[in-house]
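If you are new to this repository, start here. Below is one unmodified record pulled from the training split, so you can see the exact layout before writing a loader.
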Amino acid sequence: MKRFIKWLSWTLITILVLCVLLVLNPNLVKSPLEDYLGDLAGYSISLDGDLELSPGSVTTVSVSNARLSSVVLPGKDKLLDLGRLELALRTASLFQETIVIEHIHIRDAKLLLAMDAEKQGNWRRPPGPVQPERATESGRKILIKDIRVMSTDIRYANQKRQVDHHFLIDNFTLSHTDDGMLEPILNGQLNGQEIGLTSHIGPYERLGSGENIVIAIEGVLGGLSIQGDGRFDNLFKPDRPEFNVSVEGADIDDFTAMLKVDDLGTGGFQLNASSTVTDDRIVTAIQGSIGDVSIDVSATMKSLSALEQSAIKLQASGPDLGALMRTVGLDDWPNEPFDVRAEMQRSGKLLDITEAQMNVAGIRANLTAEMS
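And here is the target side for that same chain:
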């Protein structure tokens, strides 16, 4: 018994000394922490600045001048420069069912994403041995009360498409409201166009399961205004969602400049997407115009998982099919005027194409068919 008490005493003294040293100089653990985080993330991580630890009822950990690098693309190894990261943790929650993080603050970060001509991204992790699965503690929840991202620069360069997008986050906050909702607020710029978005998502307690989630959003995207709301029976696998979203702008050039895509003609931007649920079916629709392109699509079905009884109507036309398709990432379409119309119904395994008509550059194709 005396030997055990002596061993226990020395163990406690050692732990106490290590804790004191860690508080006084947390930089002692920088090197092993870099190795551990690098193995965990699959990237090279360097903690060039100070590592600070402030224990208490709320324990604060902060790191400055951290770098994350990748080696999969020569010359594009720099992935993330982090000016400062601060995390505040409610210490007692480490021993409770829910771990409470009071805040996560990120400032002066630079994220550089690049894709080469072979569509290989610099964010890919290098190939290596399969890591064993880490055991996780079941039943633990994490509550993050406040997230802030300030003065953060994100760049994306695509060598194949020869585009370079620049997204500047002036300020992003994610906080909890008194009614149990999450409130993300974003202010920044995308390719020189102002962005300001406010949304409400929740309730927070149901986000884990994704069931019966309400979402509302409003704001501006360059010269476009966006407003929408929706209710999702399952956010991760929606079956009978309800939503209504409208995007409007006076000049289509604001949209093409913001996304750095081809000219889509003249005029404004007006698009509405909706999904309405009745007792026995869903009615979804996308209608509007994008410059000189007009779109009118509608569909009815029992649910997204039961398409045996469904119907679709589609009509789209515009002066340049190639420019429109490149906007959604599809190349090699002709730069010619187009007019597409289709109407079809499905009943069980039978697909009835009542009308399918395509007119591109004056070349017209028609199709009617029944398939099962």
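Two things worth knowing about this chain: The chain is about 15% helix and 55% strand. The two ends are 82 Å apart (CA to CA).
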